[in-house]
Design brief:
This protein is α+β, with helices and mostly antiparallel strands. It folds into two domains: 205 residues, 2-Layer Sandwich (Cytochrome Bc1 Complex, Chain A, domain 1); 190 residues, Cytochrome Bc1 Complex, Chain A, domain 1, CATH 3.30.830. Helix content is 44%, strand content 19%. The chain contains 17 helices and eleven strands. The strands form two sheets. Strands 1-2-6-3-5-4 form a six-stranded mixed β-sheet, sandwiched between helices. A five-stranded mixed β-sheet has the order 7-11-8-10-9, sandwiched between helices. Helix 9 packs across helix 16 and helix 13 runs antiparallel to helix 15. The chain is globular and about 60 Å long.
Length: 427
């Protein structure tokens, strides 16, 4: 596979008078449209005393507006076979839907209504507190999810970036309508809002629809709370009565705009990004140490985390950590030209396959605008990946995999006095 990729696309961007940016990508050969309203709001912008509020607001926007009840919202999207959903991340919140292109006006009306006119009924707030608390309990009952959650908290100790997206039960229980509405007014501002759409649409007609439904959104500027994160090297054990020990190890990684990010993608693919990766082959295929083992790279606007995960029987923990440590520490010296070629092809294939989804295209529009202020085309990404050299990969690996900067967390039947640093030989 070469780095060439001819995009059959029509990208356009319009900024409304109130500051809302409308970005579209016309895909004429599909019959649907994926649309999302994105706001620069997430758990890293929450003060500790209201941690979890962004995710809670996300839930509440589906609980009714001045003209729609929660049931009406659900029925309207179901009646056209559409999908309506939302998510909150560390830095962004998105409300999105996918419908047939003939239902574009309904999608715009519905999303704009819940985004701008949510009523935050007191009875719904109290009921949704129970729902979110159950969601937190569900995460705590999933050891693989829990070990990642603890890793984030420990890796960015005392920093908002490490706060859990769901928040804490004490915080959720004490939320009230005034606090929710005040936070929404602070962060859900036109200058921090994007409306992105991909699919069978015409840009100017879509902009007119959006302006009709959001034109009264008053211009204002968000008061963003953010501090520069710093990682914190540490080891942490969470004793649980489980069949396995779940281990997660985090190291510094490139940000979403760091020139080294493409090298990071390739290193992630080589170490633990697929069935042919080092960790999968050495840990699972050759030794049967774990069912799930992988590496990951999570990038944010100004920092990132490169990590590895596996779960194994308690009596084989030392063996697992030794293998994981060996493969990770030796990555910069052991990586070969063949590894790089395979990883590049894998990543390119994943990117191009994702372009067959209007949801993926819509997501790409939003993230390109937030992180770069422009559209980042697939052809540009593929060319950047292709240009990464073996020397650049080795330099990036040496920077990320540093003995003095990593955090390790274990959840399961393992004693709190376990020397995790000692088990992970060499680090």
């Amino acid at each position: 596979m070469t780095s060439e990729y001819k995009e059959l696309t029509n990208y356009q961007k319009t900024t409304l008078d109130n500051g809302v940016r409308v970005i579209t990508e016309t895909v004429p050969y599909v019959q649907s449209i994926s649309m999302g309203i994105w706001v620069h709001s997430g758990s890293r912008y929450e003060r500790p005393e209201v941690n979890g509020i962004c995710h809670f607001i996300e839930h509440m926007l589906f609980k009714g507006t001045d003209k729609r009840s929660a049931f009406t919202i659900a029925k309207e999207i179901d009646s056209v076979g559409g999908v309506l959903n939302a998510f909150t991340s560390k830095e962004l919140t998105s409300f999105y839907c996918r419908v047939l292109s003939e239902n574009t006006e309904l999608a715009v009306d519905l999303l704009a209504d819940i985004f701008l006119n949510a009523s935050f009924p007191d009875d719904e707030i109290e009921r949704e507190k129970q729902v979110v608390c159950q969601e937190i309990h569900q995460l705590e009952d999933s050891p693989e999810d829990l070990v990642h959650e603890i890793l984030g908290i420990r890796f960015w100790r005392d920093d908002p970036l490490g706060q859990p997206i769901l928040g804490t039960i004490p915080n959720i229980v004490k939320l009230d309508r005034n606090t929710l509405v005040g936070f929404k007014n602070q962060y859900y501002t036109p200058d921090e809002t994007l409306i992105c759409a991909a699919g069978k649409l015409e840009h100017d007609a879509f902009v007119q629809l959006v302006e009709r439904h959001t034109g009264k959104f008053p211009r204002s500027k968000a008061d963003v709370y953010k501090i520069q994160p710093k990682s914190d090297a540490s080891a942490h054990v969470e004793e649980r009565d489980l069949e396995q020990v779940h281990v997660c190890i985090g190291m510094d990684g490139p940000s979403a705009v760091d020139p080294r990010r493409h090298a990071g993608y390739i290193l992630n693919a080589v170490l633990g990004g697929g069935m042919s990766s080092r960790l999968f082959q050495e840990v699972r295929e050759k030794r049967g140490l774990a069912y799930a083992v992988y590496s990951f790279l999570s990038s944010f606007s100004d920092t990132g985390i490169f990590g590895i995960y596996a779960g194994c029987d308690p009596e084989r923990l030392q063996e697992l950590l030794n293998i994981m440590g060996k493969e990770t520490l030796e990555l910069s010296r052991s990586i070969t030209a063949d590894d790089v070629s395979t990883a590049k092809s894998q990543i390119k294939g994943n990117i191009i396959l994702a372009m067959e989804s209007t949801d993926s295209r819509m997501n790409r529009l939003a993230k390109g605008e937030y992180y770069f202020g422009r559209r980042v085309g697939v052809d540009e990404i593929l060319a950047a990946l292709e240009a990464v050299t073996l020397d650049e990969l080795r330099e990036t690996a040496d920077w990320m995999i540093n003995e003095g900067r990593y955090t390790i967390v274990a959840v399961g039947p393992v004693g709190k006095d376990t020397d995790l640093f000692g088990y992970f030989r060499g680090l």
